């Protein structure tokens, strides 16, 4: 699929013709100005030299001057037009090729080929920024499409198990094979809870990414946020045998919504707990990086993350280890919600790991507000 101008004239041709017209116009203007001014100036100088304007000597000098002007200006204008036309043609061709590449790549992306990328045209930083922005757009579209496919697959899998459970137990009840005892009630209730949790997670991530989650910022400190979040999960950590420790290196004042940031920290702490075995350690630290930023880090000694998964951890429904996360009951969107809430506060959420078995560190970067 190729997009063409309705007039059939390319941008490169139009640019070339426009530049040639400018050069020719400048040359003609210079010729007209020279023709209008030069004779008068020349005659004045002849008079000052004491040469009679009507003498044969003056006529010969004027003829020589006229031919000199014609030849010199004509040759100069011709050379200038040729050089300017050559440069204009080169620039127009370069720009036309770059635009054609972008147009072709856009058409490929519109056709579903999201792996398309545009090379740098090397025409200046503006075009380099255009190519970089285009490639970033293509990358995000590719990631979104991959996530959409994975999401549909995950949704099908997540829903299949509880639906199958509900269907089989209802059929058993109808056939009289089972009775509605406590075990049956618990199984049916667990299946409906699983479906309900999946629906809530889908709604939560959609609302967060569409900025429908209301933020009510108030002045507080990073130490207060950490202590509140840690106190809420301390019992869960103790029951699993995972050590949870706090290192308040330097607390900083921030203006955030404590409930939303508490949700972020709860997601990070829950994620660390699920992937840290008994006997492991999770450390939450607060640091004032500089006058403008404060950091909260959640570091665990758990499973770790492979390098090729780090860039996708915050994509919705992405799971670095599908089987492991499913067994732990995660749907793969907690980190997506956490990142969206942090960005709504003007902050950033990053992940780092030295690889499988080396643990992971999540860094929550927030703007400081020492005057709050």
> What spatial form do the alpha-carbon principal axes imply?
elongated
Strand order of the largest sheet: 2-4-5-7-6
Q: How many structural domains in the coordinates?
A: 3
CATH topology of the largest domain: Heat Shock Protein 90
* CATH architectural label of the largest domain: 2-Layer Sandwich
Largest sheet: 5 strands, mixed
How much β-strand is present in the residues? 5-15%
The helix count comes to 9
What is the terminal separation in angstroms? 56 Å
CATH class value of the largest domain: Alpha Beta
- Helix and strand element order: HHHHEHEEHEEHHHEE
> What's the name of the CATH homologous superfamily of the largest domain?
Histidine kinase-like ATPase, C-terminal domain
Q: What's the SSE blueprint?
A:
Elements: H1 11-48, H2 56-110, H3 125-175, H4 182-209, E1 218-221, H5 222-240, E2 243-248, E3 253-256, H6 258-274, E4 281-288, E5 293-300, H7 307-310, H8 322-327, H9 334-344, E6 348-352, E7 360-367
Parallel strand pairs: 2-4
Antiparallel strand pairs: 1-3, 4-5, 5-7, 6-7
Helix pairs in contact: 1-2, 3-4, 4-9, 5-6, 6-9
Report on the structure:
This protein has 372 residues and is of the alpha+beta class. The strands form 2 sheets. The chain has a 5-stranded mixed sheet. Strands 1-3 form a two-stranded antiparallel ribbon. It has helices at 11-48, 56-110, 125-175, 182-209, 222-240, 258-274, 307-310, 322-327, 334-344, and strands at residues 218-221, 243-248, 253-256, 281-288, 293-300, 348-352, 360-367. It has 3 domains: 11-113, no CATH class; 148-209; 218-367, 2-Layer Sandwich (Heat Shock Protein 90), CATH 3.30.565. Helix 1 runs antiparallel to helix 2 (56-110) and helix 4 runs parallel beside helix 9.
């Amino acid at each position: 699929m190729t997009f063409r101008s309705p007039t059939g004239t390319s941008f490169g041709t139009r640019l070339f013709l426009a530049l040639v017209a400018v050069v020719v116009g400048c040359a003609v203007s210079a010729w007209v100005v020279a023709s209008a001014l030069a004779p008068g100036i020349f005659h004045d100088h002849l008079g000052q030299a004491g040469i009679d304007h009507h003498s044969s000597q003056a006529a010969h000098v004027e003829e020589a001057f006229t031919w000199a002007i014609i030849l010199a200006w004509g040759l100069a204008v011709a050379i200038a037009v040729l050089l300017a036309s050559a440069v204009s043609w080169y620039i127009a061709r370069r720009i036309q090729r770059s635009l054609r590449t972008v147009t072709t790549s856009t058409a490929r992306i519109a056709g579903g080929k999201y792996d398309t990328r545009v090379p740098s045209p090397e025409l200046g930083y503006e075009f380099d920024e255009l190519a970089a922005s285009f490639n970033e757009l293509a990358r995000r579209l590719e990631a979104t499409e991959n996530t959409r496919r994975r999401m549909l697959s995950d949704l099908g899998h997540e829903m299949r198990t509880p639906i199958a459970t509900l269907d089989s137990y209802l059929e058993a009840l109808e056939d009289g094979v089972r009775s509605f005892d406590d075990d049956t009630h618990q199984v049916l209730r667990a299946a409906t809870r699983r479906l309900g949790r999946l629906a809530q997670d889908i709604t939560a991530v959609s609302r967060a990414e569409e900025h429908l989650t209301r933020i009510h910022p108030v002045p507080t400190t990073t130490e207060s946020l950490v202590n509140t979040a840690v106190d809420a999960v301390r019992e869960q950590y103790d029951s699993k045998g995972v050590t949870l420790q706090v290192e308040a290196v330097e607390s900083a004042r921030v203006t955030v919504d404590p409930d939303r940031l508490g949700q972020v920290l709860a997601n990070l702490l829950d994620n660390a707990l699920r992937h840290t075995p008994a006997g492991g350690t999770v450390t939450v630290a607060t640091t004032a990086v500089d006058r403008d930023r404060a950091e909260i880090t959640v570091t665990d000694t758990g499973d770790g993350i492979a390098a090729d998964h780090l860039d996708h951890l915050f994509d919705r429904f992405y799971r670095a280890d599908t089987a492991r996360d499913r067994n732990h009951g995660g749907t793969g969107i907690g980190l997506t919600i956490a990142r969206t809430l942090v960005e709504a506060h003007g902050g950033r959420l990053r992940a780092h790991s030295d690889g499988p078995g080396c643990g992971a560190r999540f860094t929550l970067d927030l703007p400081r507000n020492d005057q709050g």
